[in-house]
Design goal:
- There is one protein chain.
- Helix content is 11%, strand content 68%.
- The radius of gyration is 19 Å and the shape is elongated.
- Strand 9 and strand 10 form a beta hairpin.
- The protein has one domain: Porin, CATH 2.40.160.20.
- The chain has helices spanning 2-16, 36-39, and strands at 22-34, 43-55, 58-69, 73-76, 79-82, 86-98, 104-115, 123-134, 137-152, 155-172.
- It starts with a helix and ends with a strand.
- It comes from Chryseobacterium aquaticum.
- Keywords: Signal.
Length: 173
């Protein structure tokens, strides 16, 4: 009986860890870090990607979505200002490696973040991820970063907008 249960557990884990190919759609919420934490208390957004199984346990694809940073009051050089909401649309290549014996994965999205706010430039977009996958769903923890410039009071400020995100994606077949 123990052998049958052990065999069933390994079959379940192996089935959960197989590569996922196709379209995935989901969302994320997060806490801004670095320069973004000066201007925003939290972020949320949607994620979309199409993945192809390139090799055993490795998927490669294209990713996009939208990340929205909610504005807040902040101090700058002795003055008090209100930051408006701002957001980015990432256009990226996405890679994902699934471990064969466990339902976990690591991934990286790398590309360009397009700013949707006037006065803010887009920039390099990167998001390493670590997550758990099961059947047609994945949960992940990621660090999203976008290099950007911002016009402010007649000067251009270089910023690195980052966020630690928790997300969920569903594979649509």
């Amino acid at each position: 009986m123990k052998k049958l249960l052990l065999l069933g557990a390994f079959a379940l884990l192996g089935g959960a860890a197989h590569a996922q190919e196709g379209f995935k759609l989901g969302g994320h919420i997060g806490a801004p870090v670095g320069d973004a934490s000066k201007y925003s208390p939290f972020t949320f957004g949607i994620d979309g990607a199409y993945m192809w199984n390139i090799a055993k346990n490795f998927d490669l694809g294209v990713a996009t979505g939208y990340s929205h940073f909610v504005g807040k009051d902040y101090d700058y050089r002795g003055g008090r200002y209100k930051s408006e909401d701002f957001g980015y649309i990432p256009v990226a290549v996405s890679g994902k490696y699934s471990f064969a014996k466990a339902p976990i994965f690591v991934g990286l999205d790398l590309g360009y973040g397009i700013s949707v706010k006037d006065g803010m430039d887009g920039g390099l977009y990167a998001q390493p991820k670590f997550g758990y996958q099961k059947n047609n769903m994945e949960l992940y923890l990621g660090y999203q970063t976008i290099g950007s410039r911002r016009d402010f009071e007649r000067e251009r400020i270089d910023n690195n907008f980052g966020a630690i995100n928790f997300g969920i994606n569903f594979y649509l077949k």
